[in-house]
From TrEMBL:
Top-level taxon: Bacteria
EC numbers: 1.8.7.1
Protein's name in the database: Sulfite reductase
Entry's family note: Belongs to the nitrite and sulfite reductase 4Fe-4S domain family.
InterPro entries reported for this sequence: NIR_SIR_4Fe-4S, Nit/Sulf_reduc_fer-like_dom_sf, NO2/SO3_Rdtase_4Fe4S_dom, NO2/SO3_Rdtase_4Fe4S_sf
């Protein structure tokens, strides 16, 4: 098992950029990968499927979980060109192709890159793509549209070599709802929009399920940077099974973490008494709902299937195009939300997708 490897030595011997070059080397030479390099390949979404290293899988994280028609057609092209049986829509907003020959990876990477898809930095001891609510910006009950802030968090951290060598992975969530979003897991750190006593939008900082205070919109990125640096500096690295952020907080104790965080910021965290929150997170709604964008609806699909064969994906793309929809989101539980269905077409689109068992 990978945890028996010396993970810290694996990270120190080669950087994430070094392994990109190694991927192409192995693809060309066909040499067997060492156990250490097999672990490093996971950083870029590549997982071995058999002991002889004849078959690999490729996981592709989706920024904010979104896919447009061009990207869906790229995925379909990969199924056709390389004869893959299907593409899986995994939990955690990831795509996965299986039964891949290593020699085909350079071509696959090039095709993905043409439509702004990439498996690079899929895992590893780095900061994952930020979690947001599936219908952010579309739901009228939302207090604040956090898309711009979510994109800034991703551009700050995802793929940033300064935050690659953490004790373990770290994930931020940001929500326009006070209760946060139902991602199926409790994020390490959440920033949830809410109104303060002056009726101004602030962001509540939650470490796990515990609130440590409120900050302004402009203070979210500096706070996230400080949290990541504290974890990088003080997180233990010896026992791999307890290097996660939750264990770090339990060992340090949240009150001590809060004091360290406050000392690193040049602004005050307001109302910083530690409060456990039992509010149920906001769940994505299934079915047809009116969008905040005039003339459009969003459609939540409690998908029966989490994988798409070539035929099913072709039908899915055709139905979207026929009904003038162009963008979807994969939720953290592998369901699908059509983000931009013209309201006049929404009933027909929904019924057609139900026939497809989506």
């Amino acid at each position: 098992m990978s945890y028996k490897l010396n993970i810290e030595k694996i990270k120190s011997d080669k950087s994430s950029n070094d392994i990109i070059a190694d991927i192409f080397y192995y693809c060309v030479t066909g040499e067997m990968l060492s156990k250490e390099d097999l672990e490093r390949f996971k950083w870029h979404g590549i997982y071995v499927e058999d002991n002889n290293q004849t078959s690999f899988s490729l996981k592709i994280p989706l920024l904010l979980g979104e896919l447009n028609l061009i990207q869906l057609k790229t995925i379909l092209a990969l199924l056709k060109r390389f004869g893959f049986d299907e593409v899986n829509f995994n939990e955690g907003q990831k795509l996965e192709f299986k039964n891949i020959r290593l020699s085909t990876l350079p071509n696959i990477f090039n095709i993905l890159q043409e439509s702004s898809l990439s498996s690079f930095f899929e895992s590893g001891h780095s900061i994952k793509s930020v979690i947001t609510c599936p219908v952010n910006g579309l739901d009228s009950t939302q207090l604040f549209d956090v898309e711009e802030l979510a994109n800034r968090l991703n551009s700050t951290f995802v793929g940033n070599k300064n935050f690659f060598n953490l004790p373990n992975s770290l994930q931020f969530a940001i929500s326009g709802y006070p209760e946060g979003c139902d991602a199926g897991v409790i994020p390490d750190i959440s920033f949830n929009a809410r109104k303060n006593l002056k009726d101004k939008i602030v962001f509540e900082i939650k470490i796990g399920s515990t609130s440590i205070g409120n900050i302004a919109y402009s203070q979210v990125i500096p706070t996230a940077r400080a949290i990541a640096n504290i974890y990088k500096e003080y997180g233990q690295r010896e026992d791999y099974l307890t290097t996660d952020f939750k264990s770090f907080i339990e060992d340090l104790e949240l009150i001590n973490f809060s004091h360290i965080l406050s000392s690193m910021l040049d602004f005050k965290i307001f109302d910083s008494s530690l409060i456990n929150s039992n509010i149920d997170p906001k769940k994505p709604r299934m079915g047809i709902h009116k969008s905040m964008n005039d003339g459009f609806s969003y459609i939540g699909l409690n998908s029966k299937y989490k994988n798409f064969t070539q035929k099913k994906l072709e039908d899915f793309i055709r139905i979207l195009e026929e009904n003038q929809a162009s963008k979807i989101k994969i939720t953290h539980k592998s369901n699908i939300i059509i983000l931009d269905a013209p309201s006049q077409n929404s009933e027909n689109l929904n019924s057609s997708l139900l026939e497809l068992e989506l």
